[in-house]
Amino acid sequence: MKKLICVKEMEEFIKTGKTKFYVTSDMIITPSAKDLAKNKSIELTTESQGCELKSNINLNLSDSDLDSEAMLKLFKAMMNKGLLQEVLKCLKGENLPYESECDVNGLKIVRGNTVKLDVFDTGNPDANAHYQELVSKEESKMSAGFLVIEKSRFDWELTYEEIDYVIEGTLTVELNGKTYTAHAGDVLFVPSGSKVVWGSPDKAKIFYATYPANWADLL
To answer: Which Pfam families does the protein's record reference (predicted)?
Structure first.
């Protein structure tokens, strides 16, 4: 049964002096409670408390006590407080090339301005292209990410379907002897089996989504 957070509960929380309210998957917050939190500058977040490593576990351990028995005691205490799984999630994602926020049901928010791009191997050493996959085949039947092409062009054959949204710059697509040009705000659909030449006369930044997600395995 989900826990209902009303104005009364929010008022009690405000009295603690804390400024961040952690919303778990078993909570339902009423609109009036949300309004109160907003008026009092309380941040509502689904980010895990474990990710900030702010645990209230008090094990009274000194450095000399850190043996296998003490470690077992620590893990048991973390499990009882529901923190172990959250810490493991944080450790798993700490090397990701972007900051993100996730929910247990699969919801994922990627902070776009934190994304670090990798070199995109186009097969053309003269191409200046970078990308970063943000949603992978391990997470979804679709994949999605950012692609940047700067003053270059390269041949590409699609063995998957792709939808692109031009965030900034100019994107060119050569297909069947004709060049198509897309500008910021434009959306493209490229069907599977297409042999195209991607390019940009300036610097194009694109958000892409592909189906199926394992597009790299199909090349």
So the answer is: EutQ (PF06249)
